[in-house]
Amino acid sequence: MIKPEILKNEAERLHALRTLKILDTSHEERFDRVTRMAKRMFNVSISLVSIVDEDRQWFKSKQGIDASETSREISFCGHAINQEGLFIIPDASKDERFFDNPLVTDAPNIRFYAGYPLKLRHGLNIGTLCLIDPKPKGLDEEDQQLLKDLGAMIEQEILSIQLATLDELTMISNRRGFLTMVDHGLKVCRRNKLSMSFILFDLNKFKAINDSYGHHEGDFVLSTFAQVMLDSFRDCDVVGRLGGDEFVAMLSDSDGRTTDTVLERFAAAIEQANETLNKPYKIEYSAGVMHFPHDTEKSIEEMIQRTDAAMYEQKKDKGR
Q1: Environment class of 249 (CB within 10 Å of its CB; exposed 0-12, middle 13-18, buried 19+)
Q2: Spatial contact of 113 and 44, defined as CB atoms under 8 Å apart
Q3: What is the CATH number of the domain that holds 57?
Q4: In degrees rounded to 5, what are phi and psi of residue 253?
Q5: Within this chain, do residues 191 and 283 fall inside the same structural domain, yes or no?
Q6: 109, 130, 165 — which closes off a domain?
Q7: What is the C-alpha separation between 274 and 267, in angstroms, rounded?
Q8: Which of 125, 6, 138, 137 is CA-nearest to residue 73?
Q9: Nearest partner of 30 among 159, 162, 153, 164, judged by Cα
Q10: Taking the mean position of all CA atoms in its chain, how far away is CA 299?
Q11: CB-CB contact of 281 with 205 (8 Å)
Q12: Range 198-211 average pLDDT
């Protein structure tokens, strides 16, 4: 058995997935309707909307199977999300990647598999609409187009969720998504008596970049800054774009030393990005930091406002 490879943009993919807050939610008719159609149209025993998490695949919608998830390392969908087109296995028992897979040798005895990668945008796949059957099968050109059409219907439903919580440009949490995730993080900190920190970033000289090089270049700076945040912060930290050129992060179980370490790592990553990109400008920023105890009575908005004030003090000190 060959395990699925982990994607190069895995951190970005997992962040976007968790921001959607789709994992471990109840079944919804808008998804179940499509899997019922797929099962009937293709005459297969199983059809799924499978979401690939860090170490499992979880079924948002399922027809013909009782299990709600399997491990990622034995999943067919873990392979399917590594490509953009349909992933079709006519007979898994004759495929070197799957012939000894427990999902092939034991129930549900998979032979035929066809998966349509569900994407949030190009290169960012979170799962599949897939077909499974214990008998070898194939899909002709018309069938393949039909599966793509059904997959696109699922993507539209996911998009409606995404637009509410993700920043479309940077693919990290927007203000609404950030506040939702922080609300959950705050409850965890209070329950486990963990301190927390907020960091608010504001890009320096961003208007000058837009004015001199165009909004396309400005968008590139915003996307680059967001990607460096994803690469620099811990998986347990929550990051987001509040709007414009303002970004924010919440660190749980955090104190001054933790934030200093993160900010040093982040500064080094930004410096590396500037050297690698070799643009006629530098990505520069100001950052404000505030620490709060687990039992703070301040609201999330109040904590962000305090951090915002600290950031503007630093920006004023720099004269920017």
Answers
A1: buried
A2: no
A3: 3.30.450.40
A4: 55, 50
A5: yes
A6: 165
A7: 11
A8: 6
A9: 153
A10: 26
A11: yes
A12: 95
> Which domain does 69 fall in, by range?
10-165
Q: What is the residue-wise DSSP string for 248-290?
A: EEEEES--HHHHHHHHHHHHHHHHHHHHHH--SS--EEEEEEE
Residue 318 has a pLDDT of 62
Q: Which of 305-320 are b and which e, b meaning 16 or more Cβ less than 10 Å from the residue's Cβ?
A: ebbbebbeebbeeeee
Copy the structure tokens of residue 39: 């099962």
Instruction: Decide: helix, strand or coil at residue 309.
Output: helix
Q: What is the pLDDT of residue 121?
A: 82
Q: What local confidence, expressed as pLDDT, does residue 254 receive? A: 80
Residue 286: which of 301, 253, 308 has the closest Cα? 308
Chain centroid offset of residue 191 CA: 26
Dist CA 141 CA 146 (whole Å) = 9
Position 78 scores a pLDDT of 96
Domain boundary among 122, 146, 165: 165
Candidates 1, 63, 42; CA nearest to 137 is: 42
Q: Which amino acid is at 222?
A: L
AA identity, residue 239: V
pLDDT digits (tens, 9 = 90+) for 140-197: 999 999 999 999 999 999 988 888 888 889 988 999 889 988 988 888 889 889 999 9
Spatial separation of the C-alpha atoms in residues 198 and 203, rounded to whole Å: 17
Residue 320 — very low, low, confident or very high, per pLDDT cuts 50/70/90?
low
pLDDT at 68 over 70: yes
> What is the tens place of the pLDDT at every residue in 90-124?
999 999 999 999 999 999 999 999 999 999 888 89
Q: Which residue has better confidence, 230 or 19?
A: 230
